[in-house]
């Protein structure tokens, strides 16, 4: 087996998010972890923040970005329940933009035999985030109406598919006609181009003035504030992220007037606080994929060596669905 590998390295934090492709020793499996050969790595919005020191988690320098991988086990730790040759997808703290990475046991899942690896890498983050946001946090019920912002993005596209499967009426928003068309293609009942149409008025019109029961918001800022105005009586706003760059000061009077709730969801921390929900959730997601009910939207595939371009495209809103790197 090789001793050295390629890995992207962030050696210092800069506003531009400098990183370089370097030769590094291949990790060695320890404890209940195992080392996989990375066959696909997911690129996430938070990678663009982490490499600039703007994410809440700040790994010690130097570090390799990348929190989502799929690949084949090449070495298993002494306490690992996995074997060499198993195919795994995993959520990591960082380290995925490399040829090999050590994956922990909590947050890594065996990929069913007939499941393509490039789709499996779309499972560790966007689907669990959407699942937890809609089910565990908002308690979405059949027949409710849900508004999903940035519906053509990673989390948004996953949320559209899951909300439709659970019997909700889905209104999506996205920037531009191509992205709104994609939202409808993925199952949204209506899609609003929020670069051209006012969100609040359009949602009111679509819902006959009632508003929506649930909002899934990965964008933040002004969109979060407007989302409160879109809520129906008893509505729930789930705060997923701040892709727009700003954290909103939410007017709490709107929560009171609508008997509403605003809540956050933080998937990564479920590994620490609620590891029990993870295996059944992944089992359900794999089964939904097997039945063709969910289908990861993968259009943007970059070679590992082009990780910088992938991150720029993501930050510049030029990607849709799940962006992946392949060796
Ligand atoms: N809470 C959690 O556990 C959790 C888990 C995963 C992700 N997240 C967060 O959720 C957010 C979305 O993640 P994602 O993976 O779905 O990202 P993504 O695929 O890049 O989607 C984000 C979308 O946000 C929209 N957007 C609006 N304003 C933007 C701006 N100024 N810059 C860039 N994009 C902007 C863009 O869609 P339009 O062009 O259509 O507006 C973009 O496609 C991120 O903030 C991420 O950190 C949170």
UniProtKB/TrEMBL annotation:
It comes from the Bacteria. GO terms for molecular function: oxidoreductase activity; zinc ion binding. Residues 17-325 form the Enoyl reductase (ER) domain. InterPro entries: ADH-like_C (IPR013149), ADH-like_N (IPR013154), ER (IPR020843), GroES-like_sf (IPR011032), NAD(P)-bd_dom_sf (IPR036291), Quin_OxRdtase/zeta-crystal_CS (IPR002364), Zn-ADH-like_protein (IPR051397). PROSITE patterns: QOR_ZETA_CRYSTAL. It holds the Pfam family ADH_N. This is Oxidoreductase. It comes from Aliidongia dinghuensis. The lineage of its organism: Bacteria, Pseudomonadati, Pseudomonadota, Alphaproteobacteria, Rhodospirillales.
């Amino acid at each position: 087996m090789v001793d050295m590998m390629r890995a992207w390295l962030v050696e210092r934090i800069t506003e531009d998010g400098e990183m370089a492709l370097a030769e590094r020793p291949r990790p060695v499996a320890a404890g209940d972890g195992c080392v996989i050969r990375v066959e696909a790595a997911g690129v996430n919005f938070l990678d663009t923040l982490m490499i600039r020191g703007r994410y809440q988690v700040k790994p010690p320098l130097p570090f390799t970005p990348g929190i989502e991988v799929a690949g084949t086990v090449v070495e298993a730790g002494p306490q690992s329940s996995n074997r060499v040759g198993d195919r795994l997808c995993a959520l990591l703290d960082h380290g995925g933009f490399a040829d090999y990475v050590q994956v922990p046991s909590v947050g890594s899942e065996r990929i069913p035999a007939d499941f393509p690896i490039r789709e499996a890498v779309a499972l560790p983050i966007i689907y669990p985030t959407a699942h937890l946001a809609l089910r565990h946090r908002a308690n979405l019920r059949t027949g409710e109406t849900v508004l999903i912002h940035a519906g053509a993005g990673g989390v948004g596209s996953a949320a559209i598919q899951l909300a439709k499967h659970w019997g909700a009426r889905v209104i999506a928003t996205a920037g531009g006609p191509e992205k709104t068309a994609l939202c409808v293609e993925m199952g949204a009942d209506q899609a609003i181009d929020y670069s051209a149409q006012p969100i609040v008025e359009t949602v009111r019109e679509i819902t006959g003035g009632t508003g929506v029961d649930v909002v899934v918001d990965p964008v933040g800022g002004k969109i979060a504030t407007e989302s409160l105005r879109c809520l129906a009586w008893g509505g729930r706003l789930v705060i997923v992220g701040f892709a727009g760059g700003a954290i909103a000061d939410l007017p709490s009077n709107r929560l009171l007037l609508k008997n509403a709730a605003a809540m956050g969801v933080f998937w990564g921390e479920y590994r620490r606080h609620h590891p029990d929900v993870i295996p059944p959730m992944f089992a359900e997601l794999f089964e939904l994929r097997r039945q063709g009910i969910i289908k990861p939207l993968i259009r943007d595939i970059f070679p590992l060596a082009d990780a910088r371009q992938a991150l720029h495209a993501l930050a510049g809103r030029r990607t849709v669905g799940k962006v992946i790197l392949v060796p």
